[in-house]
Design brief:
This protein is an alpha/beta fold and 229 residues long. It contains nine helices and six strands; from the N terminus they run αββαααββααβααβα. The radius of gyration is 19 Å and the shape is globular. It holds the Pfam family Fer4_7. This is 4Fe-4S binding domain protein. InterPro entries: 4Fe4S_Fe-S-bd, FrhB_FdhB_C, Polyferredoxin-like_ET. Residues 1-30, 35-65 form the 4Fe-4S ferredoxin-type domain.
């Protein structure tokens, strides 16, 4: 049974909740909105799968790690894609390729009023929502199980997220189905609080007496070097 005594030992990736066949684990927000697993002991059968799949476990499988990874620098050829993307729009190029070959893409988008969540996309139009940085912890919801269904159906899946989320994927999917799962992780500076983000939106709307209808993190019209919203 997974038990988080130190919040630094959990990233909220939902791998433990997703692997539980008895749905004994739910993700609950703390005071800042960060998601942590909570176990329903009446449903738990002590199978140990939640502990085994956790990327913070000392026995986490690192056999797929590359000892000497190759490093490349890339930039999209389309200037318009660069304008509305971050990090050279590499994700756009890769996701377009996957979609053109019948695959599916998962990335961070918005639900409700700019609440950051991971979503599934099968078209370029749906995938366009994943462009750009979102400096908030994303809610993975049922994405792990959705991806597993896609892989079982023989689809190639591209997933973009934080390094701790992709680490959870490596463990959750396992080697048998891993060949059709392409993981993209970002150079992460840690994820800010969902509740602080919600409060900031509320503050901004109150200040200007108007609803936020569109936003961009690290918008480039006044320069690329100074992060701003």
């Amino acid at each position: 049974m997974i038990n988080i005594n130190n919040q630094a030992d959990c990233c909220g990736c939902t791998a433990c909740a997703s692997i539980c066949a008895h749905d004994a684990i739910t993700m609950k927000p703390d005071a800042l909105g960060f998601l942590y697993p909570e176990v329903d002991r009446s449903k738990c059968v002590d199978c140990g799968l939640c502990e085994k799949v956790c990327a913070f476990n000392e026995d986490y499988d690192k056999s797929l790690n590359i000892d000497n990874p190759l490093a490349y620098a890339a930039r999209h050829k389309n200037e318009e894609e660069l304008r509305y993307s971050r990090s050279g729009a590499v994700f756009v190029a890769m996701s377009d390729y996957i979609l053109e070959h019948g695959g599916v893409v998962y990335g961070a988008g918005y639900a409700d009023h700019f609440r950051v969540v991971h979503k599934r996309a099968t078209t370029k139009e749906e995938c366009s929502e994943f462009k750009g940085s979102k400096y908030v912890q994303s809610d993975m919801n049922t994405v792990f199980r959705q991806v597993k269904q896609d892989l079982k159906a023989g689809l190639v899946v591209l997933f973009s997220g934080t390094p701790c989320q992709t680490a959870g994927w490596n463990s959750y999917i396992g080697k048998a189905q891993r060949k059709n799962l392409i993981l993209i992780d970002i150079i992460c500076h840690a994820v800010p609080s969902p509740y602080i983000w919600k409060d900031y939106l509320g503050y901004t709307e109150s200040k200007f007496k108007s609803n936020v209808i569109k936003l961009e993190f690290r918008e480039k019209s006044i320069g690329w070097n100074h992060p701003h919203i």
